């Protein structure tokens, strides 16, 4: 059935990422309504005290639990790359998110190390960021911020270990591309913010103007 759906999708119709119903796009009406329960739409303004007191706005779209958690895990660890279209659909249908994104020029995904990307076959945040840029008319650049060290997986560490683990693992290349630009960093899951904060510091050191954060699901 799954193969048949995928075949049909290739010919003419996309199917719902959750229930696989054909004909209503990448997220059907019923599943879209079900997901309303997990909507967070939370904007948090934080100050990076240990780094030039930069003010950052972080936008969390959904809560990381139940069906959202299940779908993200399927997306990340079960090879279901096609689900990026459904996640993009969730984001572009959210008016508050689209309003928030209007303040920025470029969307940059949190990078993964090239060996991890090779292993998974894709960077989950990059696929969504690219699709978002296409649909919302933003610029997207996945080659500005790179991950230079293949560190331990964050999910198995505590807060202090996480901060240490991500130190100096990201690097900006092509600095001229972000000079004085308003940049939005996109990531799929937010837990302690250690990864995101490290990316912010790198981008800010490379002279980005304003930096914002867009998170699909907050743990
Ligand atoms: Zn559905």
Descriptive report:
Helix content is 39%, strand content 22%. The chain is α/β, with parallel strands linked by helices and 219 residues long. The protein has a single domain, classed as 3-Layer(aba) Sandwich (Rossmann fold), CATH 3.40.50. The site of zinc ion (ZN) has 7 residues, from helix 2. The site of zinc ion has 7 residues, from helix 2.
What labels describe this entry?
single chain; 219 residues; alpha/beta; Rossmann fold; six-stranded mixed sheet; two-stranded antiparallel sheet; 9 helices; 39% helix; 22% strand; globular; binds zinc ion
Task: Please specify the SSE layout and strand pairing.
Layout: H1 2-11, H2 29-35, E1 39-48, E2 54-63, H3 66-77, H4 84-92, H5 95-101, E3 106-109, H6 114-120, H7 124-136, E4 139-140, E5 145-147, H8 159-166, E6 170-172, E7 183-190, H9 194-205, E8 211-218
Parallel strand pairs: 2-8, 3-4, 3-7, 7-8
Antiparallel strand pairs: 1-2, 5-6
The structure holds zinc ion.
Task: State the gist of this model.
39% of the residues lie in helices and 22% in strands. The chain is α/β, with parallel strands linked by helices and 219 residues long.
């Amino acid at each position: 059935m799954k193969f048949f759906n995928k075949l049909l999708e290739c010919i003419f119709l996309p199917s719902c990422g959750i229930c696989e119903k054909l004909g209503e796009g990448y997220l059907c009406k019923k599943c879209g309504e079900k997901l309303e329960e997990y909507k967070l739409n939370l904007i948090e303004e934080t100050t990076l005290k240990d780094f030039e007191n930069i003010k950052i706005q972080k936008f969390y779209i959904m809560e990381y639990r139940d069906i959202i958690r299940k779908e993200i895990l399927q997306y990340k660890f079960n090879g279901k790359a096609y689900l990026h279209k459904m996640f993009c659909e969730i984001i572009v249908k959210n008016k508050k998110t689209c309003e928030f994104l209007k303040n920025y020029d470029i969307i940059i995904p949190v990078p993964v190390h090239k060996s991890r990307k090779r292993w998974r076959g894709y960077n989950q945040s990059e696929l969504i960021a690219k699709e978002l840029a296409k649909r919302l008319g933003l610029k997207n650049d996945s080659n500005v911020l790179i991950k230079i060290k293949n560190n331990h997986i964050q999910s198995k560490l505590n807060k202090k270990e996480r901060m240490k683990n991500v130190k100096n693992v990201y690097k900006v290349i092509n600095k001229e591309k972000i000079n004085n630009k308003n940049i939005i960093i996109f990531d799929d899951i937010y837990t302690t913010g250690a990864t995101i904060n490290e990316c912010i510091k790198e981008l800010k050191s490379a002279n980005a103007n304003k930096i914002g954060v867009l998170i699909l699901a907050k743990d």
